[in-house]
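Handout, page 2. Input:
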Amino acid sequence: MRPRGKAEVNPLVSSAHKDALLLWMGFQNPECLVKPLSRRHTDPSVIVHAMLLMSHRGGHQESKKKLEISPSETMKAEEENYKEEAKEPKSEDWRPPSVFGAADLKNRAVGLYNIGQTCCLNSLLQVFLMNIHFTKILRRISVPVCATQKKKNVPYQMLLLLEKMQCGKQKAVSPRELVLCLEAHRVTMFVQYDAAQLFLTLWNLLKKQMKNPELVEKLSDLYTISVQEHLACQICSSETKRNSSMLSLPVPLLDSDSSMLKTLEKCLQCFFRPEELTGHNMCFCEHCGKKTPFQQSVKLVHLPQTLTIHLKRFCFGRSAYIHKISNCLPFPQDLDFNAVLTEQQCQAYDNEKAAWRYELFAVVAHSGTTSYGHYCAYIRSLTECKWYCFNDSFVEQVSWDDVKSTYGHSDLYWGQTAYLLFYMKKQPQ
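Output:
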């Protein structure tokens, strides 16, 4: 699926966008931190980026005629879907016996209907459910006792959705029950979302509602990044350290001189590069008794099985206008952090660093502008080693060249650009 130029706008869809833009949810930290970080992540530039992500909206608008589904067509498809489901025996306590992801049980990929600006949610759900390491955890959750608890339990509703995707006969299923479950937890649905923000929201709800401490630990081990923050006075050399956890690495696409970084590896190096705090950015030093220049840095301690990288493509222009950086940013299929970071940027033992070799698993791509757009996901089946494009209810097998089309291009108004990258740790040789 190649990026295209400006798409023709369906009047029904654009009207829905116009109404949806009047709605927006409250602030959540877009840097995807599990625990709060120190001054480095609360300085003005990060606050500006947080405001930006609150303003950025990524909703649903199809860019291909064959993918446009009117409300009546969606209702008709769902009606047929429910008829098929009614023919099959159901058990709310049933557990899928295999360890495969959503698309792997019957060697086919299953889509999710867009039930009202849910393309962002659909893309993230596919990334979760195609991850066999995540579904292993999901199948071990405790089933809620009463019907009310089942309706409000996000892990359980996600498990039921996995069951529908694996055992149904449809090409696509509806995430309606899970959407209602999220609404019960004050997650505003049927509005346009930022994928990084919604990913954090989903993950926190999953972690909160998994009552088994062992499963919570496994979920954290699967996704959580550990870093150590350093803040050193340049006058007296006193230094403070703090351990922090992150759900994703929010890497910049522009360096300190606002020049475009050329590769993902350069973006990662920029994120871990020490920063000098001088002038109005100076910090108060208790030893010196006054504000002094400081150097702050982040050192990598631990990387999880599934590594999430957030490409910060949205920023303020000179006139305070929010714009999207659509420039080309290549990302590799194989990523070795030992070849990317220096010894000074790491705070880990050799056996930990030996496991920092990754292979690309999924790409959540955004097409459109800061005002309106659409999300889809490119995911590599871990059992078939084939790439699929999940575009709501439309799913097709694609090539690596199709995935590379999400690198971006500055001349494309409606082109797809990678926004979230998911890397899977390689198995030891």
